[in-house]
Amino acid sequence: MHPGETQQAEAVAFLSSPSAYGSDGPVEVVTTHSAHVFLTGRLAFKIKRAVRYSYLDFSSLEARKAVLERELALNAPAAPEIYDRVVAVTRDASGGLALDGAGAPVEYVLRMHRFPREAELSRIADAGGLTVDLAGRLGSAVAAYHADAERRGADGAVLIREIIDELREAFDGMEPVLGRGRVAAFLDRAEQVFAQAAPRLTERSAAGYVRRCHGDLHLRNLVMINGRPVPFDALEFDERLGTCDVFYDFGFLLMDLLHRGAAAQANAALNSYLQAAGDYGGLAALPLFMALRAAIRAMVTVQGMAGSGSDEAAGDARNYLDLAADCLAAAPPRLVAVGGLSGTGKTTVAARVAPLLRPAPGAVHLRSDVERKALFGAAPLDRLPTEGYGTDVTAKVYARLLDLAEQALRAGHSVIVDATFLEAGYRKQVQALAARLGVPFDGIWLHADPAVLEQRIAARTGDASDADADVLHAQLKRSADPAGWTRIACGGEAGQVAGLVQKTLFPA
């Protein structure tokens, strides 16, 4: 027990008793390195432990009150269903303790509403319930969270420099677990990538992308509330640790998904985030950000072993460091265009192939249907009026697709553009973009019997495409197979078609 906790013991004993809450129900006490949490009924009460570590100091009552108030301020806007208020444990005239009483405060408590543990995204993922669709909603939720985050003036390059230096110092004594070769190779590569990224990180700081972020954004700190993913338990005790580039914050979640083997979900989360935030420039530093997040997990895992020598923990730490190295592996970007008539399954196939392209977590997937809606300020599932499909609008859609593709490619990220590409001019434009940027290009042309396409279009629900049978018939009259593009029959099951595309993109 830390010295300050002796005085705190009375409050801990009081809050551990059902009588503190006017109840006879059980109280479950959960203790972490810095807090005690008391679970009773539908409520949770958290106090900060009276501890002092190298990185935090909660030894005084004033400090504990301040950090609880900061925790409330950081989390309540995003999760008002969880975070309620800070109340005091007080001492009454008779010397007894009361929760939110009228006497002098002896401790401060954050009052919260509980949620089912099975609603945590980590639990959902462990149970196999983290679908690609849900992962996409995660990306949108994080983008909304970052949009509301307070901008900070710190230099993003300086912040990342400090993280690399901290890792170098910490790893110095971890070679017996992680492997000297692994550590040296990772640090050398991290320095190379950082040197390339540093000027852009500073530019992003000036552009407002360094903000007071969540700081600990992984699946255990996301929960489903009323059908939506909600971030909670933001890092509250250190403002500098919580201040970072928004993509560094998001990179923790993407790394967590990759570590769990959920590559398709990571790709879906990335693309939803990009669609919502429009921050394609952040892609340039994403491999470094994910790598550092994975390396930090390797470091923390080794530190948590505390001399136990657990083979499982050591293996997990090495897996994290291997993931960090993989994120930094050289992966030149490429441009893929998937075209074909409405109903050929372009979007489905592109979404399945996108996670396979490097760098992790896969290609940026640009959809003409979604970008067309965005031009009108419409949601993806909103239907557009007829004027939304005029030739002038279509030209703007393709221009937008190529602009976003160029941003992503210049940031070093692969791109899949998903559109009909019926006009030869648009096919030439996308190929010319690849040639101008010096990246490999692959054109994929999906085709199927018109009757199959009609059936698919008729069966569509919840799709961004507004195409109907009349649109398909009009397309059939002006469709021509593009020269130089790989024709792939798409009449079969989506997974089979995606497999054929994969073989085209990654020949043995």
Describe the structure.
With 508 residues, this protein is an alpha/beta fold. It has three domains: 5-114, Phosphorylase Kinase, domain 1 (2-Layer Sandwich), CATH 3.30.200; 121-328, Aminoglycoside phosphotransferase (APH), C-terminal lobe (Aminoglycoside 3'-phosphotransferase, Chain: A, domain 2, Alpha-Beta Complex); 335-505, Rossmann fold (3-Layer(aba) Sandwich). It is built from 19 helices and 15 strands. It has helices at residues 5-15, 61-75, 121-126, 132-147, 156-171, 175-178, 180-206, 239-242, 246-259, 263-277, 286-305, 311-328, 346-353, 368-375, 391-410, 424-437, 450-459, 469-478, 494-505; strands at residues 28-31, 35-40, 43-48, 83-91, 97-99, 104-113, 210-212, 222-225, 228-231, 243-245, 335-340, 364-367, 415-418, 441-447, 486-489. Strands 1-2-3-6-4-5 form a six-stranded antiparallel beta sheet, sandwiched between helices. Helix 9 packs across helix 11 (286-305) and helix 11 (286-305) packs antiparallel against helix 12. The model has no long low-confidence stretch (mean pLDDT 95).
